[in-house]
Amino acid sequence: MAPSSSHPSYGGRPLPDAMAAPFLYDGITLKRCFAYGIDLIILAMIGGLLWVGISALSFMTLGLAGWFLWPLAPLIPLAYHTLLIIGPRGQTIGMRLMGIEVCTLEGSPLSFFHAALMVALFYLTLTFPLLLAFTLFNSRRRALHDIFSGTLVINSDALR
């Protein structure tokens, strides 16, 4: 495997399996739940600001702006998660606070398409207990949308 496709914080090597480095995957399931909760609070604040803005524009345009802007509102969570995950650290704000990050199976950062696929699969498979059930049956604690998109969530604090 080329060093460019490996995680830079892991010494230029591909990320190991959970048996070789359990510290990378310890407590991931609980950390992911808390990280998503933090992200939901942030998204609720963004949604509130969006609601005020769209309502004001709708009022000023006698309701016309609302017809065009309200259908775009569901794209906010998709954009939030995708744009933050493709950042240099592969983390949303909640992930950063919980010390976890998203990467490919080889440990490289996600491309825009890869992140958008992962986020879309997450929201399509948002039967939360089902997502968490998959993390209990694999050594790397990968959720259903991680398996389908070829991504991995690791303890970023453990690498630094």
What does this protein look like?
This protein is mainly α. It is 54% helix and 6% strand. It contains eight helices and two strands; from the N terminus they run ααααβαααβα. The protein has helices spanning 28-60, 64-69, 75-85, 93-98, 112-124, 128-135, 144-149, 156-159, and strands spanning 100-104, 151-155. It has a two-stranded antiparallel sheet. Helix 3 (75-85) crosses helix 5. It is elongated. The two termini are 22 Å apart. Mean pLDDT is 83; it is low at 1-5.
Low-confidence stretches: 1-5
- From N to C, what is the helix and strand string? HHHHEHHHEH
> What would you call the structural class?
mainly alpha
Q: How many H/I helices?
A: 8
SS strand fraction: 5-15%
Which of globular, elongated, flat, extended, rod-shaped describes the shape?
Answer: elongated
Look at the structure and give the mean pLDDT.
83
Radius of gyration: 18 Å
| N-end to C-end Cα span | 22 Å
Lateral arrangement of strands in the main beta sheet: 1-2
The helicity comes to 40-55%
Sheet bearing the most strands, described? 2 strands, antiparallel
Based on DSSP secondary structure assignment, what is the total number of beta strands? Answer: 2
